[in-house]
């Protein structure tokens, strides 16, 4: 199976004070590759991106510049993760669609970070899933699926095993929860998923083994039906 995985920066790079342990996620990706799956990965910016964006904003940077800083950090995170994967990974991080085509032609695991201002890494992952012909898009988050509202703030929030894109849009709208607030997904990513009919799973990525379970059809998180 061709599968695109968004690895949340909130999970991989949660703070600036400790060294991230990428090895459990590397082992999960190695297992997927070893079982014959074709894997594509997007890495988020995490706390390093938030830190430098805040620093730039407080020093007068406009939002487009802040976006560009976030993109640079996500690309750096993707490069670090590619080095952890070693020879399995494409040796460069695509910065645009021409470079993406060259990366796909290598036959190795393609890793990406950000692409352009105004576009989240969730949206980049959806684009990568579309361009690579992925049959599945796995989006790792810090919650274990889609809820009626943010479960970290509302203990009575209801978890959904399956949702349509239309239902998910209503949930995000009615609850007032924006994608970036609890690392779920955004409207641009949903539009891409809808038009290309990519089956999507939103899972708790804090346990890297959940990625394996999601790809191999074991029930994990919430399935978004395109």
The helix content is: 40-55%
User: Given the structure, what is the number of helices?
Assistant: 10
What is the string of helix and strand elements? EHHEHHHEHEEEEHHHEHE
Structural class label: alpha/beta
* CATH architecture annotation: 3-Layer(aba) Sandwich
Characterize the overall form. Answer: globular
Give the terminus-to-terminus CA distance.
18 Å
Please give the CATH class.
Alpha Beta
Descriptive account of the structure:
The chain has helices at 9-12, 23-34, 46-58, 63-85, 97-104, 121-132, 165-175, 179-182, 187-196, 209-215, and strands spanning 2-7, 38-43, 110-112, 136-141, 146-147, 159-160, 162-164, 199-204, 222-225. With 226 residues, the chain is α/β, with parallel strands linked by helices. The chain has a single domain, classed as Acetylglutamate kinase-like (Carbamate kinase, 3-Layer(aba) Sandwich). A 7-stranded mixed β-sheet has the order 3-2-1-4-8-9-7, with helices on both faces. The protein starts with a strand and ends with a strand.
Structural features:
alpha/beta; two-stranded antiparallel sheet; globular; Carbamate kinase; 226 residues; 10 helices; seven-stranded mixed β-sheet
Outline:
The chain has 226 residues and is an alpha/beta fold. The chain is built from 10 helices and 9 strands. 46% of the residues lie in helices and 17% in strands.
Task: Describe how the helices and strands are arranged.
Elements: E1 2-7, H1 9-12, H2 23-34, E2 38-43, H3 46-58, H4 63-85, H5 97-104, E3 110-112, H6 121-132, E4 136-141, E5 146-147, E6 159-160, E7 162-164, H7 165-175, H8 179-182, H9 187-196, E8 199-204, H10 209-215, E9 222-225
Parallel strand pairs: 1-2, 1-4, 2-3, 4-8, 7-9
Antiparallel strand pairs: 5-6, 8-9
